[in-house]
Structures are given as structure tokens and as C-alpha cells.
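Section 5: illustrative case.
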């Protein structure tokens, strides 16, 4: 699937950071949508039905872990891959997010190349899991 058809939602409470991530993704051909804060994220994700979610953990209203838990309870959103992007670097935080269902975990600050590499890796892994033989 061409990148231009890939839809990514960025959940971030820092507007400048969210816009920077969105611009990085757009430069690489993706459609990128920002949701600033946890409560806004749930609505944007439900509306956009993205191929991937970039999710910050530390937000003032709902944490990234709370958002991930809510998404996993909604059958229409449960299988969307999530890449955590957080300033939390403790191994216990990383392990907890991966156990909760995150596909990858990146620590801030993040380079353009690391972001794109993680996005492409997770999206490719999702494509590899699709069974094209069943009708």
C-alpha cells in the first residue's frame, strides 16, 4: 500500500512536538492527523480509523496507557498498531507498554530517521500478518 494511503494519528499533548511528527510523516508521504491530549485522541482515532497510532504516555487528562487500554476494549480499534513515543526511559515503563500491547517504544528526543524506520517496520509487520490465502 502506498504511503499516501496510510493514515497515522499522532497523540501528543505538546502541540509543537505533534506538529513536528506530523510534518516528518507528511514529508515521507503519509497522511498524518494530530490529537492533542487523551480525550481528544479517542474521538480522532474512532473517526480516522488509522493504520497506526503514535502515542505519548504522559498527558494531563488520560495517560497513554489508559488510552491504549480503552482502544484494546473496542473491537473496531483493538488491532491498530501503537508506537509509544515517550520521554519515559525506565526499562519498567518500556516493558509495561510493550506488555500492554504497544508494537514499539521510542524515547524522546527522536530523530526523523528513527521515527520513519519504526513506522515502516510496524506497518510492514502488520502487512506480513495478513493472510491473503483465505477467501
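Designed sequence:
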Amino acid at each position: 500500500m502506498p504511503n499516501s494511503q496510510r493514515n497515522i494519528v499522532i497523540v501528543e499533548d505538546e502541540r509543537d512536538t505533534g506538529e513536528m511528527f506530523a510534518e516528518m510523516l507528511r514529508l515521507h508521504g503519509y497522511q498524518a492527523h494530530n490529537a492533542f491530549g487523551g480525550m481528544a485522541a479517542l474521538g480522532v482515532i474512532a473517526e480516522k480509523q488509522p493504520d497506526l497510532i503514535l502515542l505519548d504516555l504522559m498527558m494531563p487528562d488520560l495517560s497513554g496507557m489508559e488510552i491504549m487500554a480503552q482502544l484494546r476494549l473496542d473491537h473496531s480499534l483493538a488491532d491498530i498498531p501503537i508506537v509509544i513515543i515517550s520521554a519515559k526511559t525506565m526499562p519498567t515503563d518500556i516493558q509495561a507498554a510493550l506488555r500492554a500491547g504497544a508494537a514499539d517504544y521510542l524515547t524522546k528526543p527522536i530523530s526523523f530517521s528513527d521515527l520513519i524506520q519504526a513506522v515502516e517496520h510496524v506497518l510492514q509487520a502488520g502487512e506480513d500478518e495478513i493472510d491473503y490465502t483465505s477467501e
